[in-house]
Amino acid sequence: MAQHKSAEKRIRQTQRRTGVNRARLSRIRTLVKRVETAISSGDRKAAAEALRLAQPELMRGVSKGVLKLTTASRKMSRLSARVKALKSP
């Protein structure tokens, strides 16, 4: 248990940041899942739109320190390749 004012403050800050980071990561996962769902349904237009919405969120996760740049880049690359592989309607 914290014994100093500064340690108590750090605990409060850590809890607050953990909540924000979890919410951000959850949002990223949700948007990526939407892309994957659209890909599995075979709808290229919907998949491309979902990818367009997921990309800035992934990069925002990188800038906020929730994801590493290489992780976000790998996810974007793989998703975009799968979207491109879909046949046009």
List keywords for this structure.
89 residues; mainly alpha; 0% strand; 83% helix; 3 helices
Supply the CATH superfamily name.
Answer: Ribosomal protein S20
Shape: elongated
For the record, give the distance between the C-alpha atoms at the N and C termini, rounded to a whole number: 60 Å
Strand content: under 5%
Number of domains: 1
Q: How do the helices and strands follow one another from N- to C-terminus?
A: HHH
- What is the helix tally? 3
What would you note in describing this structure?
- The protein has about 90 residues and is mainly α.
- It has one domain: Methane Monooxygenase Hydroxylase, Chain G, domain 1.
- It has three helices and no strands.
- The chain has helices at about 5-40, 45-65, 70-85.
- Helix 1 (about 5-40) packs antiparallel against helix 2 and helix 2 (about 45-65) runs antiparallel to helix 3 (about 70-85).
- The chain is elongated.
- The model has no long low-confidence stretch (mean pLDDT about 95).
